[in-house]
Amino acid sequence: MNTGVNLAGAEGNAPEPVGYRTEMYRAPVPATLKGARVVTTDEAIALWKDKETVFVDVLPHDPKPANLPAGTIWRDKTREDIPGSIWLANTGYGILNTETEAYFRKGLESRLGREKNRRVLFYCMENCWMSWNAAKRAVEWGYRSVFWYPLGTDGWIAAEQATQKNEPY
User: Fold this and answer.
1) b (16+ CB within 10 A) / e for 101-129
2) Which residues 6+ apart lie within 8 Å of 61 measured at CB?
3) What is the mean pLDDT of the chain?
4) Over pLDDT 90: what percentage of the chain?
5) How far apart are CA 13 and CA 149, in angstroms?
6) Which Pfam families does the entry link to (predicted)?
7) What's the pTM?
8) What one-character-per-residue DSSP string does 120-157 give?
9) CATH no. for residue 82?
10) Among the four 40, 54, 115, 168, which has the fewest Cβ within 10 Å?
C-alpha cells in the first residue's frame, strides 16, 4: 500500500546519533535505530491487527498551567491516536527528569508488566525524534522486542486507518 507519506530514509535522512536527540525534535529522522526494528505503515497495521503489540504514543502534551488567572479559558488539545495505544506524553525528550522517567517506566509496566520480551511499538508523528528517543530508551532499559514507527499518526491517517481520541496516561 502506498500511503502517500515519505518513508524514513526517503529524503533528508539524518544519521543515527550515538546518544539522544535533545533539540529540534521535528526534523528528518534516521532510517535506523540500533536494537529496534523500524517498521513501515503496512507493518505497523499488521502489528496492530494481531493485537500482540503494545502501541505507545510519545507526543508531547502541555498540561493546564496551575497558575492561570481566574476566568482564563484553557482548551486542552485532543489527540487522535492509533486505537488501543497508551499515550505516554513527554517521554520522548532527549533528557528526562526523574519524575518523567518514573512515569515512562510505570506506563510501560502498566501495559507490558515486567515482561521485557513483549512487543512494543513507539510512534509520534512523521519527522519527530520523540518516538526515536523513546524507542532507544526502551532498548537501553532492556526491552528486547522494540519497534519504531517513524511515520506515526501521519502515516497511519494517510493510510486511512481508524483513530480514536486519547488522553495522556
Assistant:
1) eebbbebbeebbeeeeebbbbbbbbbbbb
2) 77, 79, 87, 89, 90, 168
3) 92
4) 82
5) 15
6) Rhodanese
7) 0.90
8) EEEE-BTTBHHHHHHHHHHHHTT-SSEEEETTHHHHHH
9) 3.40.250.10
10) 115
